[in-house]
């Protein structure tokens, strides 16, 4: 596996996914090490200055007015980390914590934080050893950045608190670091603050969600195509000239995917002639590109925000290139929080329209000749009746998760931090939303595949046939009722892994 080089410049989103999810090793570039060393000299020069400097010789937040004597400054940094490692609740997922640590290391590598080179290297060493600090669900207000989650990581670098080792075993940090040959860091001036003052947790989760949504939104187009086909809908409305009348790029891409996936479908061709009396399909079928396209455009905007954040050096205070140590407000998570909330809305909307398409398959008044609930013997068998219930329950939850977190500021730190972003909460909501959307799309594919099989002897398009064939490796075709939950989970894996998308693309070529 290729190393990810942490340089003075920004990481790519793919670098973050490689390290967070796939365990790619990291290395700090020589240029970054030099920049770190230069900025550290600035901090050390200020350590003996009689003028107070925030984060170097003062307390923090509402306690910033106290000047801390030299002999207490190492204790100041340790106390900061220990007191801020105050998270509560369930453990946060390993990939989120690894993304958070890598992104903090990336900011350290810019040389704008004033840490020592060995402190930055400790983060790289923990990542490479597969040691993951235990971070708890609750504790971040998204301003000053993700304080509590980052503090739990800094605590582990100090050799304190709990971690999961490379095997996933819960161990004291000191023990795990010793086993990996890593020396705990004794924090010096400014370092504790530099390790906890960033938007890395919310940004890491945004990057991971965008990575997953690239696959999910293309797969949602495949599910929509299968539903149009299985419900004897028309592909005429997806024509490029009609879509161009409303030139949203996401809509155009989604419609192009639908055309590609439905190409050469004998089912669609069977009712294309003048004898067909259907004038228009229902909105959930006809307007799929508009709904899916809006989500694509939202994701594109969010990716732009993420790229800007990846290029940022978020800390307070920062060591500027001209040698100043300056306070600022760049730790505020508002830009990231807003797009996290925006994506949660789009996720709920795409799931909602997918559930409506699925429901149409099950109703004899709307499914154009298929059995009720696609059951083998309706009344004796219930078919996919309750699979749609599962979808509906998830969609209802996604609608609740779409309520924005970023407008729900709550004051803290004796009113010094009187407006916060709640970006971490927005990220946690979106993470749940992406999982829910995966499951909703999976049930649509599962149901649409059953319907396409029931349209025999008419044959589906080569692309949708390939998607059905891939699903059939783990899920049998139509028949009497079976234990349905394992089949739904198999479909979830099929969608989440990207296998469903790859099956279609083996026929169509790359989809948008």
Automatic annotation (TrEMBL):
It comes from Streptomyces benahoarensis. It is found in: Cytoplasm. Gene3D superfamilies: Fumarase/aspartase (Central domain), Fumarase/aspartase (N-terminal domain). One of its GO terms (biological process) is L-histidine catabolic process to glutamate and formate. Belongs to the PAL/histidase family. Its EC number is 4.3.1.3. It comes from the Bacteria. PANTHER family: HISTIDINE AMMONIA-LYASE. It is an enzyme of class 4 (lyase). Keywords: Histidine metabolism, Lyase. Its main location: cytoplasm. Pathway: Amino-acid degradation; L-histidine degradation into L-glutamate; N-formimidoyl-L-glutamate from L-histidine: step 1/3. It catalyses: L-histidine = trans-urocanate + NH4(+). This is Histidine ammonia-lyase. GO terms for cellular component: cytoplasm. PROSITE patterns: PAL_HISTIDASE (PS00488). GO terms for molecular function: histidine ammonia-lyase activity.
């Amino acid at each position: 596996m290729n190393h990810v080089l942490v340089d003075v410049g920004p990481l790519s989103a793919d670098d973050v996914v490689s390290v967070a999810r796939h365990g790619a090793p990291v290395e700090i570039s020589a240029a970054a090490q030099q920049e770190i060393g230069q900025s550290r000299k600035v901090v050390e020069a200020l350590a003996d200055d009689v003028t107070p400097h925030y984060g170097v010789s003062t307390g923090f937040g509402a306690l910033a007015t106290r000047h801390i004597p030299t002999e207490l400054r190492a204790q100041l940094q340790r106390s900061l980390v220990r007191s801020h490692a105050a998270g509560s609740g369930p453990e946060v997922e390993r990939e989120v914590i690894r993304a958070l640590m890598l992104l903090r290391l990336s900011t350290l590598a810019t040389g704008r934080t004033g840490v020592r080179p060995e402190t930055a290297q400790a983060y790289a060493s923990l990542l490479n050893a597969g040691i993951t600090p235990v971070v708890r669900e609750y504790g971040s207000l998204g301003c000053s950045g993700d304080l509590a989650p980052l503090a739990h990581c800094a605590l582990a670098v100090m050799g304190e608190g709990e971690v999961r080792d490379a095997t996933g075993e819960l161990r004291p940090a000191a023990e795990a670091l010793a086993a990996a040959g890593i020396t705990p860091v004794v924090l010096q001036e400014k370092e504790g603050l530099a390790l906890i003052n960033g938007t890395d947790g919310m940004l890491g989760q945004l990057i991971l969600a965008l990575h997953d949504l690239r696959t999910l939104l293309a797969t949602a187009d495949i599910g929509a195509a299968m539903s149009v086909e299985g419900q004897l809908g028309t592909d005429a409305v997806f024509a490029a000239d009609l879509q161009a009348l409303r030139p949203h790029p996401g809509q155009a891409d989604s419609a192009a995917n639908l055309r590609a996936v439905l190409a050469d479908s004998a089912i669609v061709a069977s009712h294309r002639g003048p004898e067909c009396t259907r004038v228009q399909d229902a909105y959930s079928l006809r307007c799929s590109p508009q709904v899916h396209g809006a989500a694509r455009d939202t994701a594109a905007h969010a990716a732009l925000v993420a790229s800007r954040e990846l290029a940022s050096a978020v800390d307070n205070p920062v060591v500027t290139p001209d040698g100043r140590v300056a306070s600022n407000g760049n730790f505020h998570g508002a830009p990231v929080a807003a797009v996290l909330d925006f994506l949660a809305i789009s996720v709920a909307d795409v799931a909602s329209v997918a559930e409506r398409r699925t429901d149409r398959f099950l109703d004899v008044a709307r499914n154009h000749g298929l059995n009720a609930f696609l059951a083998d013997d309706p009344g004796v068998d219930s078919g996919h009746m309750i699979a749609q219930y599962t979808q509906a329950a998830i969609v209802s939850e996604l609608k609740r998760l779409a309520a924005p977190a970023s407008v729900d500021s709550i004051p803290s730190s004796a009113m010094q931090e009187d407006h916060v972003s709640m970006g971490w909460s927005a990220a946690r909501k979106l993470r749940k939303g992406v999982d829910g959307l995966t499951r909703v799309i999976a049930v649509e594919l599962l149901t649409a595949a059953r319907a396409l099989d029931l349209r025999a002897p008419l044959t589906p398009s080569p692309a949708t046939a390939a998607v059905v064939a891939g699903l059939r490796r783990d899920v049998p075709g139509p028949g009497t009722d079976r234990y349905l939950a394992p089949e739904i989970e198999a479909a979830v894996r099929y969608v989440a892994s990207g296998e469903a998308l790859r099956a279609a693309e083996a026929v169509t070529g790359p989809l948008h």
